[in-house]
Amino acid sequence: MKIGVITIGNELLSGFTIDRNSAWIGQKLLESGMKVHVRQTIQDDFSDIYDTLESMWDQWECDYVIVTGGLGPTVDDITVSVFMEYFDDKHEFDKEYWSILKERFQRLNFKMPNLNKNQAYKSKKGQMINNLVGTARGLHYTKDHSSLFKTVKVALKGGPKKSHFFALPGVPQEMKSMMTNYVLPILEKDLESKVVCKSIRTTGVPESILQEKISDIIEENKDSCDIAFLPHRMLGVDIRLTTSDEKLIKTLVDSIVGRVQKYVYGYDSDKLEEVVANLMINNKVTIATAESCTAGLLSARLTDVPGSSQYFNGGVVCYSNELKQDLVDVNQKTLDRYGAVSEQTARELAVNIAKKLKSEIGISITGIAGPDGGTEKKPVGLVFVGISYRNNVYIKKYNLTPNRNINRELTVILCLNEIRKILENSKEI
């Protein structure tokens, strides 16, 4: 089963609008055991849309083509006209649907613009797809594999005897409604073998090192399983396995995890902060934070998880040296001798915040986020993280980047991962 996706809109190409529709479609298809074969984003141009429909049919040999965008009432919405031309169809005015549209506008106390008449036409050859949340109806056409060559190819690959073309609105909620209620049931009915996808989520290691560790596994299974490395969220990499063999994917997951266990924090949609939260709940421990350069970002991530009151006692943002002393009892001599950005200050912050807020874990962050404030001995990007846990204090020193925002985000992720490793009794600490 080959599925093509076309997203239409000048705004998508210019960057004014982010194309989240195709991402959502891809995810939903994968959840249903299917995957996108080809995806293209094109402008609101008659010839471009027509030619792309033809390439999906002729060049890519797609069994299903899902198109989003260009079904609105304005002058740049030309998808319906292209579909009519491509399928040699003629539309006719739908009085019944025009009455429905006028009634919808009246309920909102709006006068129906004449432009909306463009949305009240129906196809003679295709199937209209009802819009449950908007005004623009979708279109569904089928195209026969009429040539002998195509017929033979289709028979050999066991695909459907016809290719299906769907035109859906670009408005996300309208597109999602039609996909869920109309398109997906058709595709699932024709699905013969499901695609299985599993993601192994890692952090604290570059993708090149991961690949090096499992290169033989990739090579041995390259014909039966697609293994991809997908970087995410700064220091994180997903190892994504895609195959139609469910037994194989379980075997491969076990083999890969056996090689890179110390970097693995979860699977599929697991979030690092959720994993850490569950570890704290299961270990019945609480945490308190003392943050300087991250200014509360770690506390925010820890409390993004519902039920965080079970493990998060509180946090302090102590930017100034005065607050480090007054709120967290950092010794004046420590600050004078070693400075705010130092192993010694990070240690005292972690130990003291745990005591003050009666928490099993105390974590501190102090550093030079940038872009200014660095010196030769203490450059921008220097960060110390302190973790106090069970009478032990772990200090981590990082030399990050010149970029302020990246440094703050990276530090939070690194902190979360260190907490994870400690609670999992990792030997890497």
Please tell me about this protein's structure:
The longest helix has 20 residues, at 404-423. The two termini are 48 Å apart. The protein folds into three domains: 3-190, Molybdenum Cofactor Biosythetic Enzyme, Chain A (3-Layer(aba) Sandwich), CATH 3.40.980.10; 196-267, Alpha-Beta Plaits (2-Layer Sandwich), CATH 3.30.70.2860; 272-423, Alpha-Beta Complex (Maf protein). It has helices at 10-14, 21-31, 46-58, 79-86, 95-107, 148-157, 172-190, 207-213, 215-220, 246-260, 272-283, 297-302, 321-328, 332-338, 343-356, 404-423; strands at 3-8, 38-42, 64-68, 91-93, 121-123, 127-129, 138-144, 162-168, 196-203, 226-232, 236-243, 264-267, 287-291, 312-317, 361-367, 382-389, 392-399. The mean pLDDT is 92. Helix 2 (21-31) runs parallel beside helix 7 (172-190), helix 3 (46-58) crosses helix 4 (79-86) and helix 11 (272-283) packs parallel to helix 16. The protein is 41% helix and 23% strand. By secondary structure, the chain is α/β, with parallel strands linked by helices. The strands form four sheets. Strands 2-1-3-8-7-6 form a six-stranded mixed β-sheet, with helices on both faces. Strands 14-13-15-16-17 form a five-stranded mixed β-sheet, with helices on both faces. The chain has a four-stranded antiparallel β-sheet with strand order 10-11-9-12, covered by helices on one side.
Using the CA coordinates, give the radius of gyration.
Answer: 28 Å
Which percent range describes the beta-strand content?
15-25%
Give the spatial strand order of the biggest sheet. Answer: 2-1-3-8-7-6
Number of domains: 3
CATH architecture heading of the largest domain: 3-Layer(aba) Sandwich
Helix content: 40-55%
Summing up helix and strand content along with how strands pair, one would put the structural category as alpha/beta
**CATH class division of the largest domain:** Alpha Beta
Instruction: Report the major sheet.
Output: 6 strands, mixed
